[in-house]
Amino acid sequence: MNLPRFYCREALSPGAHIELPEPVARHAVRVLRLPPGAPMILFDGRGGQYLAHIERIERDRVMAVLASWDEIERESPLSITLVQALQAGEKMDFTIQKAVELGVRHIVPVESRRSVLRLAGERAAKRVAHWQGVVASACEQCGRNQVPLVAPLEKLENWLARPAPGALRLMLAPEAEQTLVDLPPAKEVQLLIGAEGGLDPQEMIAARQAGFVGVRMGPRILRTETAGLAALAILQALWGDFREG
Fold first, then answer.
1. CA distances (Å), origin 121, targets 107, 108, 133
2. What backbone phi and psi angles, to 5 degrees, belong to 133?
3. Interior/surface letters 10-25, b for 16+ CB within 10 angstroms, e for the rest
4. Which residue has the higher pLDDT, 216 or 119?
5. Distance of alpha carbon 48 from alpha carbon 50, whole angstroms
């Protein structure tokens, strides 16, 4: 039986008695209707997970006690950073959620010249916090015990100015001559995906100057919400953990 899994930010330890965070408590009791004594899995993002059970329920407060710790991990040996230009509507939430399921290690949201969505200041900070919540929920669902970090939003040109020694830097370019299959294996990849209109020609030039290599994926033009996820799946199949049981 698959037990419900919940992410708790505070550091956990075997035998500890804790109060579940309010969103976790609400979901456990009001949505899943878990009673006192119900078992669950808790993880704090530092690796591994804990078997726990509900100790008592006091109105909106849910107390749990932690039992054994399990060191199980479901992280890919391939470290992938998804550098995703802002997408409009709910596309960004969808992309981030599925990228976590596909094993991405880091997520860097960037504002590109063709991004329809524009965020700044407090709005940007709130949206990044929201995306971090999307990441945590995706980890609960897919079984990951290490929670990928969503970096603060910044302009693509500023992010490109910082070096990334050791990482294979890739961007999708329909006119590129080589495909992902043509590349030698890598252990660390940075994948740059444009917004709805793709990357601006000047941005592609800047990306190439920063060490990004253009690759194509077949004869069809993929939407932004499809392109990155398709590339992530291919990378995991080539060099990651998609061949594991």
1. 19, 17, 19
2. -65, -35
3. eebeeeeebebeeebb
4. 216
5. 7
Is-contact 85 193, C-beta < 8 A? yes
pLDDT single digits (tens) 21-31: 998 999 898 89
Torsion of CA 32, 35, 36, 37, to 10 degrees: -80
Residue 232 has pLDDT above 90, yes or no: yes
Using CA atoms, how far residue 23 sits from 52, 142, 201, in Å, is: 17, 19, 44
Q: Rounded CA gap, 234 and 146, in Å?
A: 22
Dihedral angle at the C-alpha atoms of 196, 240, 166, 98, nearest 10 degrees?
30
List of residues 6+ apart from 162 with CB closer than 8 A = none
Residue 203 CB: number of other CB atoms within 10 A?
A: 21
For tokens 């596309």, the residue is 91
Choosing among 2.40.240.20, 2.60.40.10, 1.10.287.40, 1.20.1530.20, the CATH entry for 5-70 is 2.40.240.20
**Which helix (DSSP H) or strand (DSSP E) does residue 215 occupy?**
strand 213-215
**Predicted TM-score (pTM) of this structure:** 0.91
* CATH T-level fold of 79-239: Alpha/beta knot (3.40.1280)
